[in-house]
Amino acid sequence: KDAIRLYTLFKKTMEEDTKVAKEYTEDFILKNNMFGIFVDNVLAGFVITDSSKKILIDEYDHHIETFYIQEMLIHPKYRGQHLSKHLIEYSIKRCPDTSTYISLMTMPTNIPLIRSATSCGFVQQNNQSGDPKHSLLMILKRN
What we know:
This protein is an alpha+beta fold. The protein has helices spanning 2-13, 21-31, 83-94, 111-119; strands spanning 33-39, 42-55, 64-74, 101-106, 123-124, 136-141. Helix 1 crosses helix 2.
């Protein structure tokens, strides 16, 4: 329930249809991996990862398979506490050894997430993600 409430809040913030938030969240949970971060036993945020998404990254002229950080949500009450950085770091740890690249998309105005991702080694790409709202593409190349 907490994840659905948080996702609904996110959809409101993005000015998107909140009626489908429950279905989306349940679908994400069934198809992907979802990890929560808690503060004082309260769900403060979560990340949803997808083990495989083909992305056009700067160093290639074709789409490359990536481990994809699909959704990351931090409740407004808990922002500014570096929780997104913790979720990114955890997602990196959960990434399969066979994945060379990790990708995430965000809005170009989401400076806190861009900073968190950059501090974890992600590099902003010149190529756009293809998502009209979350057009900024960031890639982490693993050794």
